[in-house]
Structures are given as structure tokens and as C-alpha cells.
Amino acid sequence: MTATAASLASPALLHQVGDRALSWLDAHRDFFRLTPEDRATGSATIERLKPIGELAINMQVLFREGVAGSRQRTRAGALLDFAWRELLDGGNVLAALQQEEPHSPVPLEVYAPFHELGHRHPGLEAALAVTRRTATWTALEMAPNRRLGVLNAERKIGLTPSTDPDQALARTWLGQLPEPWTVQLHIAYDVTHTVFHLTNWGEAPDRIPPDVAAYLTRYLPAWLDDWADLEHWDLLGELLVVDACLPRPALDARLWELYAAAQDASGAMPIRHAMPEGDPDLVFDQVHHPTLVAAFASAMATSRALTSTVG
């Protein structure tokens, strides 16, 4: 299904999804905090840092795409400042993790969007410089799309790529253009994150090679329909971002109406089916990621819709 074969979602609907998601994220900002128990082990710290990095990326996308009104920009700026100063202690949390686990790429990946938005931690950068001079840095085994993420983080803070980006892309599932009917859940997330890292979270869609863009244009509509039918809102949101990164995004009104209808009145987006109930901490752990994805998808789609309207 292409943009000419489906009705386009209205910019107002697209924007509303993101506005509601941002309101929920702001109202639940304290749930992003690391607890003393989280800091007790490196693995627990890493798991709690990932959402903070995702929050920063979302605020960065919102600023970059220029689709936020003054109220949204103010809220996004306050959230970003809160994340850097209070959640990360001005970067000291990342520097401490880098000292404890010098070859973990997580401090670099979380730091990159903050660095791009003007925040600096010289101690962390010095520690990263030492680590990146070791053979272990490039020898670390990780999923191919994750390697693209590390390369993108290096690029964001002005470092020379530690490996060849084209070779990294060629090793990914998407880069090999395999049979499209093998897109299971974990593969689908590999696809979306390959696009995210390749384009710097939608900033540079032209970094998608023509053959990959053609492959996605051909098969993405079917994947969108499949995951919408399964009511897997987290993955559907990520695939809607991929759609917005294509040369001719569909911005399908039917899919976006389904997606918007799945959003809770509070602004939270469930992972799958309906909103979970129970302990607020547990609910936050289940819905913060799909809600961050909803904010991301909204910013990207709204920007593309407005561009198409203007064009």
C-alpha cells in the first residue's frame, strides 16, 4: 500500500498521539530514576539507563523535526534537563558505569544524544577514548544492528567509526534482503532498529541504500497490517517510524487511527492489546517503551505529513 493508494492520516491526529505521550512521560518522569538497588550491579544499572537514553533521543527528535508547539518544546526541554541533571547526575552516572565496565557500549550510547544537544562530561569522554583504543572495543560480539547503533553513537559525538558502517549494515538481517515472510517478532525489531541507527533516528533517511529502501517500500505495508491485526502497538509504532523514513511514506490513515485508538486516555501506549493494570511501578516498566515509541512515531509522521502538505 502506497501513499497514493491509501488516505493520509491527518497531521492533527498524528500530533495528538505525540502530545498525549509526552504528557504521560512528563507526568511519570520520576519513574525513570535509578534506585540504590539498581546501582548495586552493572547489569541492573544498564537496564535502567536504556529508558533514559530513549527519553533523550525522543526529545532530540522532537526538537529536530520542528513539530512541537511552544508548550511541547518547553516540556521537552524540561524533561531533557531533568534527565541529564537529576537522572544521570550531570553524566556522573555514565562515567561511573564506564569505569566499572569499560567495554560496555551503553555509556556511549546513552551519552550520544545528550552530547548532540550540548551536554558534556569530559571525564566520560576521556575514559571512552582510552577504551576505544583497545582491540576489545571492536572485537566485542553483538548483534549486527546493535553494532550499527554503536557506530551511530560514535558519529553523534564526532568520533571516527570503529568499524566500517557499510560492512556493519551488510551483516544485518535487513541488509541481506532475505525472504520477507520470515519476519518474526525479534527479527521485526532488528529491522526497525537497523533503520533507526542507519538514519540517526530518522534524521537522514537518505542513508538507507536504494535497494533497502525499495525492499522496505514493497514489504512494509504487509508487515504493518500483520502487527496491527495482532494489536502489537509497540512494534507497530516502530514500523510506523520506518514508514516515515521511506522516500514516499504511506502515513496510512486507517493504521494511524487504529494506533491512536489503542492509546490510553492518560497518554500511555500499551505494548499489546489493552493497558495493563496493577502496581504503578510495574505498569510503568511495561508501557514506558511503547509510549516513547508513540512520541517518536508521532514526531516523525507529523513532520513528513506537514512536509507533504507544504510540497
CATH overall fold name: Glycosyltransferase
Q: For the residues shown, what is the average pLDDT?
A: 93
The sequence of SSEs as H and E is: HHHHHHHHHHHHHH
Uncertain segments of ≥5 residues (pLDDT<50)?
Answer: none
Domain unit count = 1
Just name the CATH architecture: Alpha/alpha barrel
Based on Cα principal axes, name the global outline.
globular
Largest sheet: none
Organism: Streptomyces lunalinharesii
Protein name: DUF6895 domain-containing protein
Pfam families: DUF6895 (PF21836)
Domain DUF6895: 19-299
Label this structure with key terms.
mainly alpha; globular; about 65% helix; 14 helices; Glycosyltransferase
Task: Describe this structure in a few short sentences.
With 311 residues, the protein is mostly helical. It has 14 helices and no strands. Helix content is 65%, strand content 0%.
Describe this structure in words.
This protein has 14 helices and no strands. It has 311 residues and is mainly α. The chain has one domain: Alpha/alpha barrel (Glycosyltransferase), CATH 1.50.10. The longest helix has 31 residues, at 280-310. It is globular and about 50 Å long. It starts with 10 loop residues before the first helix and ends with a helix. It holds the Pfam family DUF6895.
